[in-house]
Amino acid sequence: MTQPLIDIRNLEIAYGGGHMRAVRGVSFTLGQEKLGIVGESGSGKSTVGRAIMKLLPPTAMISAERMRFHDLDLLKANERTMMTIRGRRIGLILQDPKYSLNPVMRIGEQIAETYRFHHPKVSAKKTYAQALDMLEAVQIRDPERVARLYPHEISGGMGQRVMIAMMLIAEPEVLIADEPTSALDVTVRLEILALLDELVSRRNLGLIFISHDLNLIRNFCDRVLIMYAGRVVEVLEARDLDKARHPYTQGLLASLPTIENPPARLPILKRDPAWLNDLAETQR
Ligand SMILES: Nc1ncnc2c1ncn2[C@@H]1O[C@H](COP(=O)(O)OP(=O)(O)OP(=O)(O)O)[C@@H](O)[C@H]1O
């Protein structure tokens, strides 16, 4: 087996001096694949994503048996090392580009600035040309015009394309996308997913796709981690989701609306306190 890009064993993250355990004993590996992390609000999905980037607030207490990116021990990596990893080797795409783009800088300049940061020796002209090429790669028509616009002049979908362009221009090996399409309407969402899919496959990236939308994850990802109350309760191939054995996953699946044979009422998920500790032998 080839070495995983990311290898996490027994990750624990707590707040409030250790009283609030946001992530409890999470283990997984990421290869060149699309790995979904799904779970309800507060289950710890984003905390796992941010822990990999070491972007948790200083109040977070973090420990793990192992937290590696290739051979690099992320737990021991200092801020200087992380500056060479963040953005450059592991990219992060967040829900709303509005908060990630600089409002007073033109789109083309922002993408060029990212490129310049990673390739300081390349000429200004070539750098800007790279930014335009990247806008084209994320299927923005008329990249020269769009490059001259400010973030408030573009739509949410286009903003998300720009964010993807900005992340990919550094040629990362891993992309963490935290609810990247939640702020978009359905048709634009599908376009962005198709774009991500194509870029991830073509560039052989490892993608961690965080979402609360089980249907979306099922269709988009190769493998799915299901999180509940800070734990991974189950890991499944996306195509095997219907064979889920953990009652939480089964409950999530049962509470999804379907167009064919819609039930009169969707069942309400009944949470069993035992799920807080019991992994029902479903974790692989
Ligand atoms: N800075 C913080 N201080 C204290 N508790 C925090 C902090 N950040 C997150 N938490 C808590 O950690 C738990 C996990 O939060 P997290 O944001 O990872 O969940 P999530 O599954 O990503 O939820 P959502 O889908 O709503 O983003 C939650 O109970 C949250 O309140």
UniProtKB/TrEMBL annotation:
Residues 8-254 form the ABC transporter domain. Its main location: membrane. CDD domains: ABC_NikE_OppD_transporters. It is a peripheral membrane protein. GO terms for molecular function: ATP binding. It is found in: Cell inner membrane. Gene3D superfamilies: P-loop containing nucleotide triphosphate hydrolases. Signal peptide: none annotated. It comes from the Bacteria. Keywords: ATP-binding, Cell membrane, Membrane, Nucleotide-binding, Transport. It holds the Pfam family ABC_tran. Belongs to the ABC transporter superfamily. This is ABC transporter ATP-binding protein.
